[in-house]
Amino acid sequence: PPEFLATLSPEGLVQLRGRATDARERAVLTSYAEARFGVENVHAAMRLDPDLPAGWAARALAALEALDQLANGVAIVQPDLVEVRGASGHADASAEISRLLSDKLGEAENFRVDVRYEEKLDPVAAMPTPEECAASIRGVLDEQKITFAPGSSTIDLSSARTLDRIAEILKSCPDVAMEIAGYTDSQGREEMNKALSQRRAEAVLTALLARRVLTSNLKAHGYGEENPIADNGTEQGREANRRIEFHLIGEEPAKGAAAGEEPPAASEDAAGAPEGAGQDATAEASGGEAAAAAEAPADGEAPAEETVEPAPPRVVDPELKGIRPKPRPAQDG
Asked: How far is the C-alpha of 323 from the C-alpha of 318, rounded, in Å?
């Protein structure tokens, strides 16, 4: 018997073969397929047959619409039957196609639907779990961390590829709630470290937004020098502690590298500090901060904190309404 045959490959390519009543009908079927599957994906090779049954075009168009519900398959139109076979990533595709053909062709029309569900084609089932999303991002950061200009929240250009890869992962995890966590080493003032780490975490969030990542489920948090993963007493350890991490919301951040104990602080006496120990201490501590500009040496240097004797208490003179030091008691001789 005469037939119209449309096949859809797993790559999305469509072939139209078989018969059409006339040139106009052939053009209509071809244009409809191109609109559904893309002009570049459709190849038409139909013969003309003016003796085809009435309603042939309507049945062929319904078959093409049904084929569009599949990941791959075939739609066949014959004088007494319309058949659709193939695979789909939607569990209810078979029922949907049956309803579609019934609506388009009428209940009296004979049609057959043989569609199998394949989980690997299911866009929801194929989505990674939250744990897989976090593990993928950690893998990217293990290969190359996100770095910043010394003492600044400006992301280094060398980190662009890392951010691109993280953005692609997050696009496949749109509903996963994650925290972007910023960390510093322990050099410098704790409150300044925390502020800098917050700005850096926010800079990463902004960079991901610029890469068209939906950020409604992401939040930035700066932890400063908390949760070190290496010894702050060495330059290598301080470099490791200056980092950005991604945590699932509710996930406990990893703590110290050695048996859960926090490594010792890197603060050293100015006199006993080894030469260069503070070099490029990420300026995590103070570089780049307007308030610390006067204290900080050159960019990239973070000398050990000096021991400063506490200032004497100050009292208010009711007469002068000023402030003056309270006298210290004499020392025993």
From this structure: 9
| CATH number, domain 127-303 | 3.30.1330.60
Q: According to the model, what pLDDT value does residue 270 have?
A: 34
Q: Both tokens of residue 232?
A: 């702050």
Q: Report the CATH fold assignment for 4-121.
A: hypothetical protein tt1634 (3.40.1520)
The H-assigned helical ranges of the chain are 23-37, 56-67, 93-105, 130-143, 160-171, 190-210, 235-241
Q: Could you identify the residue written with the tokens 């570049």?
A: 40
What would the pLDDT profile of 280-303 be if each residue is shown by its tens digit?
Answer: 333 333 333 333 333 333 333 343
pTM of whole model > 0.85?
A: no
The pLDDT of 204-221, averaged and rounded, is 95
- Scan for tokens 């996100």, then name that residue: 146
Task: Specify the domain boundaries for CATH 3.40.1520.20 within the chain.
Answer: 4-121
